[in-house]
């Protein structure tokens, strides 16, 4: 994220972080998680228990 794109300012780089984190944790498959995104490993998400 920080090096994959040439940002014109620190503010621009910081503004890009939340979207990158969401993609990385919610959509990008990880081999350590069985090719699922890390969010699938959480067991204490709000509303998960009924």
Which key terms come to mind for this protein?
50 residues; 34% helix; 0% strand
Shape: elongated
SSE run: H
Q: Taking all residues together, what is the mean pLDDT?
A: 86
Distance between the termini: 36 Å
Percent of residues in β-strands = under 5%
Helix amount? 25-40%
Radius of gyration: 14 Å
Biggest sheet overview: none
Characterize the quaternary organization of these chains: single chain
Total helical segments: 1
Which blocks of ≥5 consecutive residues have pLDDT under 50? none
Number of E-type strands? 0
Structural class: mainly alpha
How are the SSEs placed, and which strands pair?
Layout: H1 10-26
What does this entry look like structurally?
This protein has 50 residues and is an all-alpha fold. It has a domain of 32 residues. Helices cover 34% and strands 0% of the residues. The chain contains one helix and no strands. The protein is elongated, with a radius of gyration of 14 Å. The protein starts with 9 loop residues before the first helix and ends in a 24-residue tail after the last helix. The model has no long low-confidence stretch (mean pLDDT 86).
